[in-house]
Amino acid sequence: RQKPVRESRLRSEIDYDLVEAFAVSIFACGPYSIHGPEHWRRVEELGLELARHTRADVTVVRLFATLHDCCRQSDGRDRLHGPRAADLLGSIPVDVLDLDRERLALLEHAIRHHTAGRISTDRTIGTCWDADRLDLGRVGMAPDERLMSTKAGRKKAIGYQNCGAARQAPL
User: pTM (2 decimals)?
Assistant: First the structure.
C-alpha cells in the first residue's frame, strides 16, 4: 500500500510560467509542433488528473509536462530528446527551477527515460509517463493500457480505447 504524500511535498514556489517561457525559448520545433506547448499543457492537465488518484508529487508532474520534450530537434524520431532534456536540468537557473535533490532526481529520471517504453513502480514517475502516453490521441493513436504504470492511467487508457482516442475518458 502506498504511503500518503505529505502536504508539504504538494506545495511549490516555482513560477511555472517562467519554466514554460524557458522551455519555449529553447524548443526547436516551433509553437505548433505536435510535441510543443499545447502538448505540454495537455500532459500537465492529464498528469494533475492522474495525480489526484496516484498521489504523485504534483510539482514534479507539472515540471515534467513542460520540460520532457523541450529538447526535441524535430517532430520525427528523436530518441535522444529525453536524455538531452534531462542533461539540461543542471543548467537551468535556480530562480527558474528550485528543487530539492529528491525531486530533481525524480524529474531527471522521468525525463531521461520517458522515451524508453518502460513502466515504473514509482507513483510520480509513472504518473508522468502515463500522462505523456495518454496524449497519443493527438497523433491518432489510442494509448495502450499495458504501457501504463498506474491503475489510474490504465483505466483512462481503456476508456480511450472504448470511446475513441479523440475523446476524453473520465477516470
Answer: 0.87
